[in-house]
Design a protein that fits this description.
The protein is mainly α. It is built from 14 helices and two strands, in the order αββααααααααααααα.
């Protein structure tokens, strides 16, 4: 009986995959997945913007459809020379700046209060977030007729209880009414960001400060407030970007009177009331440029905030 001895077969060693091939493949897949969203974004934003630039170079009034043609930069000269753009830019800065500052301060106050433990804290947080979830048009209607109405509004009813005369809020104090409505609606947004910052604070540091005898105000000013600096910056910048586009309260409550004609309402007025398509398109291009400048500064500051936070950790 013979035993056949077979030589063991040698397997060729597998070549290791080239370094970085898996990472490159994953990066390519990630980029491919982004293409549909990028294409949709270009179609929905850049193509209309290019058409807006084209219309801004045209002489086109809907009341005179036959009188239409290329006019070059005349619409931009008209925009910068009549003074409406600069006044609306000032109104936008006033409304946005006042609303952002008040929203941030009130958001800080409510965040500090809601950071404490008390019975019904969950219900209180839910109720505080509610104004930010209300549609802007619905909120403006409620404030205009239920609170700021000169005859039946709750604000004048409260003034009557203390013996003060009624006030026609929407006509006598239009800027105040707009700022109050925007502050009421965006305070919860700032509160959420600042509350997240308070909950991320190191409790050991607060306990050490209490052991050393630091009072509540000293602890807040020396420890909590510096910790919240980055969260305050995020809240201010994001709220500024959103409030630059506010239209509903102004259109419903004041119609741009009393210094409340912001850039968004001015654009609406030129396009749908004056029917000046070319001039309205020029206003739109200028508004987009202002928004891009503000958004670029805001995003750059946000990137610095996040990079600084990452380094600190």
């Amino acid at each position: 009986m013979t035993v056949l001895m077979t030589a063991p077969t040698r397997r060729r060693p597998r070549r290791p995959p080239p370094a970085g091939s898996g990472r490159a493949r994953g990066l390519a897949v990630s980029r491919a997945l982004l293409w549909p969203a990028l294409a949709t974004s270009i179609v929905l934003t850049q193509i209309p913007f290019v058409l807006t630039i084209y219309y801004s170079l045209q002489r086109w009034n809907m009341l005179r459809p036959g009188d239409r043609g290329f006019t070059g930069l005349d619409n931009y000269v008209s925009v910068l020379s009549d003074g409406s753009f600069l006044s609306s830019l000032g109104a936008t800065v006033a409304v946005t700046g006042s609303s952002v500052v008040l929203s941030t301060l009130l958001g800080m106050l409510f965040a500090v209060l809601l950071d404490r433990s008390f019975l019904g804290r969950g219900v209180a947080r839910t109720l505080m977030i509610t104004p930010f979830l209300v549609m802007p048009a619905a909120a403006a209607l409620v404030w205009k007729w239920s609170i700021f109405d000169a005859a039946t509004g709750m604000a004048n009813w409260g003034l009557g209880l203390v013996g003060l005369p009624p006030v026609a809020w929407n006509t006598e104090l239009p800027m105040v009414t707009i700022i109050v409505v925007l502050t009421w609606q965006y305070t919860p947004f700032a509160m959420l960001i600042l509350l997240a910052g308070l909950q991320a604070q190191n409790k050991d540091v607060l306990e050490a400060a209490a052991v050393d005898g630091a009072g509540a105000l000293r602890t807040f000013g020396s420890i909590t407030l510096p910790h919240l600096r980055q969260y305050v910056e995020i809240a201010v910048l994001l709220a500024s970007i959103m409030l630059l586009q506010v239209f509903d309260p102004i259109a419903i409550m004041t119609r741009g009177t009393g210094g409340t004609k912001t850039l968004s309402y001015l654009l609406y007025e030129r396009a749908f009331i004056g029917l000046e398509v070319g001039e309205a398109a020029a206003y739109g291009v200028m508004t987009v440029l202002v928004t891009i400048v503000v958004a670029s500064v805001a995003l750059r500051t946000l990137f610095k905030v996040f990079s600084t936070e990452g380094v600190g950790r």
